[in-house]
Amino acid sequence: MSRVDGALVGAGTVLNADDLARSVDAGAEFIVSPGLTTQIADAARRLDIPFLPGIANAGDIMRGLDLGLSRFKFFPAMANGGLPALKALAAVFGQVRFCPTGGITAENAPEWLAHPAVSCVGGSWLTGGAFDAARVTLRASEAAALRA
Question: Does 2 fall in a domain?
């Protein structure tokens, strides 16, 4: 796998421990999953790779905390109540930080990023549509400036 200075390569939509192992073998430096299972969390711990599991509610967060996690993907963010829902969860789980994905756009990302419990956001607007390297580069530059 070739490298780009400053870039970290991760694997997303990891659904089970086998997906996780294949991702690590392929060079992934972190793992993102749409949900949280004990099997995936245990595999990430065994392989010593950062893991960002998806959560949708308080029970998911509590299970993650029991597994030693404190960083979560809030997914799908808009379908699960949007920023008001995240604010309610963050009020109860002050030690947790979130990466909302699912319905995040270039237009609404700044509002999400303004919340102290939000470390970052994910959005398909960066790479959506037919691939165009120049457009992706421009969108990535714009996204990097959202929180600046």
Answer: no
Number of domains in the chain: 1
CA distance 20 to 120: 22
Q: Tens-of-pLDDT digits for all 148 residues of the chain?
A: 556 677 789 999 999 999 999 999 999 999 999 999 999 999 999 999 999 999 999 999 999 999 999 999 999 999 999 999 999 999 999 999 999 999 999 999 999 999 999 999 998 888 888 888 888 888 888 888 886 5
CATH number at residue 78: 3.20.20.70
Residue among 109, 103, 101, 117 nearest 142 (CA):
109
Q: Would you say residue 20 lies in a domain?
A: yes
Whole-model pTM? 0.90
